[in-house]
Write a structure and sequence with these properties.
It is a single chain. By secondary structure, this protein is an alpha/beta fold. The protein contains 21 helices and 20 strands. It folds into 3 domains: 202 residues, 3-Layer(aba) Sandwich (Rossmann fold), CATH 3.40.50; 176 residues, P-loop containing nucleotide triphosphate hydrolases (Rossmann fold, 3-Layer(aba) Sandwich), CATH 3.40.50; 58 residues.
Length: 541
């Protein structure tokens, strides 16, 4: 092993008084070699992102600060360099790709001008030379029509295009180190695959060292040379990627890897002759886009002639990328959005033909678990009221409703006493359990789960998925499970519907769709799953 381009020794990051622990990062030592991809993995709160921000001096000071250790970049200790020198290092020698480009990019500046700002700070190139360099780089990151992208604002680009623009900005001055903080978390599987391939290609071209921060072990299996695992601010395991992925030593690493859903579908449950509970036929929804004074707009058909059947006790997965129409279809089925046409038969009754004021008896039979539990829970209400409200609206006496609240909280694995607390006092996984309890309050026959685990860490995700499976089996619920994560779909769903541009392009038993996909789009989705050649070892004990 030669000289590292980055070496961290005994790094400590202190938290303000009154925090749940004294240090966000404690005693972390790492090294990054030239032309290496080091993946830093761990769950939320493990200290991954603060370790990265400490390197480039972007700490949320004064409350969170580096209180010990050394960060050596070549011959320099980054803790002792001047503010002017650190500004020089950022972008030109060490650059960073952030998790959410929409918040990292200035919405009031075009993409080209934002990248140009970096070149102006670090070089003396003329305007013409800068524009040529930017357009060339936008072409290198495989953005369509680089000249048009140069003049576009962030909101005019897709998520994948914005992330490519961020990568272009990070690689602009050919830095020695790129820190990528969850750069693919919010992206669809095909876009994610393209971004990972792009990073590896550009790294090889520029011989860059990459510190890649993620909680997705599929991504780790796809790109990592070495892996460092963090837990509660401490480094618990470091090693070669193959060794940690296939034979982890630390119990925490073992638990993380054991929680990764397998791409091999679980054995199908016997379908039997269960009756069809929900049948959708010819479902359509279009949206009109265009400004208030625009003479011409355009119609976007979000859902096109969708047909599907859901049997009692069955879990039907709906998979596809952003914009495929999955969530719109879920909102149509729950009548949170009105359809333009078609039929939604619940036990034989077309609920689209039922006037909204007479929908109450049907609404309680189909309930929804939302993707973001924090956004869907009123922050001003206590948990008990949030869960009881629906029952009280439907005529349940208040005392009986609150007794049922306590039963539901215990059903989803929470102490009944949490009914007196507010949503902000819970973790993401706990809030999702509260969302499930609220959905179950009206004893529904169908749960529509819209990306219910996409924002959760892998171990919490496993717990919520197991909870949903247990509740489904105990109550004989039917589930419409919407996800873009094919690993999750493989382990949860009895059958799969694949959506693309508003249409269902493939439908069948999960095992059959994964083993023998018929549609080109389904094959593209399966081929794009990060780490598809790796399955987490099932460890004894």
């Amino acid at each position: 092993m030669g000289s590292p381009i980055l070496e961290i020794r005994d790094l400590q990051v202190s938290l303000p008084a009154g925090s749940d622990r004294t240090h966000a990062v404690e005693g972390v030592s790492l090294r990054l070699e030239p032309n290496e991809i080091l993946c830093l993995v761990g769950e939320s709160g493990s200290g991954k992102s603060l370790t990265a921000r400490a390197i480039v001096g972007l700490m949320p000071s004064p409350h969170v600060r580096i209180s010990g250790g050394h960060i050596r970049f070549g011959d320099e200790d980054l803790r002792s360099v001047s503010a002017a020198r650190m500004r020089q290092i950022r972008g030109s020698e060490i650059s960073m790709i952030f998790q959410e480009p929409m918040t990292a990019l200035n919405p009031l500046m075009t993409i080209g001008n934002q990248i140009d700002e970096v070149i102006q700070v670090h070089t003396k190139l003329s305007r013409k030379q800068r524009v040529e360099r930017i357009v060339e780089l936008l072409r290198d990151v495989q953005l369509p029509d680089p000249a048009a992208i140069f003049g576009a604002y962030p909101h005019q680009l897709s998520g994948g295009q914005r992330q490519r623009a961020m990568i272009a900005m990070a690689l602009l001055l050919e830095p020695k180190i790129v820190i990528a903080d969850e750069p693919t978390t919010a992206l669809d599987v095909t876009t994610q695959a393209q971004i990972l391939s792009l990073l590896k290609t550009l790294q090889a071209k520029h011989h860059t060292g990459i510190l890649f921060i993620t909680h997705d072990f599929g991504v780790v299996a796809e790109i990592a040379d070495r892996i460092a695992v963090m837990r509660m601010g401490e480094l618990v395991e470091v090693g070669e990627a193959a060794q940690i992925l296939n034979a982890p030593q630390h119990p925490y690493t073992q638990s993380l890897i054991a929680a990764v859903p397998s791409l091999v579908p679980r054995k199908p449950r016997p379908a039997g002759d269960a009756p069809v509970l929900l049948e959708v036929q010819g479902l359509n929804k279009a949206y009109h886009s265009g400004g208030l004074f625009a003479r011409k707009g355009r119609n976007v058909r979000a859902v096109k002639d969708v047909a599907l059947k859901l049997r009692r006790g069955e879990t039907l997965g709906v998979v596809g990328e952003s914009g495929s129409g999955k969530s719109t279809m879920a909102r149509l089925i729950t009548r949170l959005t009105e359809a333009d046409g078609g039929q939604i038969r619940l036990d034989g009754t077309d609920i689209l033909a039922v006037p909204r004021k007479r929908m109450r008896p049907y609404r309680k039979r189909v309930q929804m678990v939302f993707q973001d539990p924090y956004a869907s829970l009123n922050p001003r209400y206590k948990v008990g009221r949030l869960i009881a409200e629906g029952m009280i609206i439907h005529g349940v006496e208040r005392r009986a409703a609150y007794e049922r609240v306590h039963e539901l909280l215990e059903l989803v694995g929470l102490d009944a006493r949490v009914a007196e607390r507010y949503p902000h006092e819970f973790s993401g996984g706990q809030r999702q359990r509260i969302g499930v309890a609220r959905a179950l309050a009206l004893d529904p026959e169908i749960l529509v789960a819209d990306e219910p685990v996409s924002a959760l860490d892998v171990s919490v995700q496993a717990q919520v998925l197991q909870l949903l499976a247990d509740i489904r089996d105990r109550l004989n619920l039917s589930m419409l499970f919407i996800t873009h994560d094919l690993r999750v779909a493989a382990q949860v769903c009895d059958s799969i519907a694949v959506m693309r541009r508003g249409e269902i392009v493939e439908f069948g038993p999960t095992e059959q769709v994964f083993a023998d996909p018929r549609h080109d789009y389904t094959r593209e989705l399966l081929d794009s799953v990060p780490g598809k050649g790796w399955n987490a070892p099932r460890l004894a004990g």
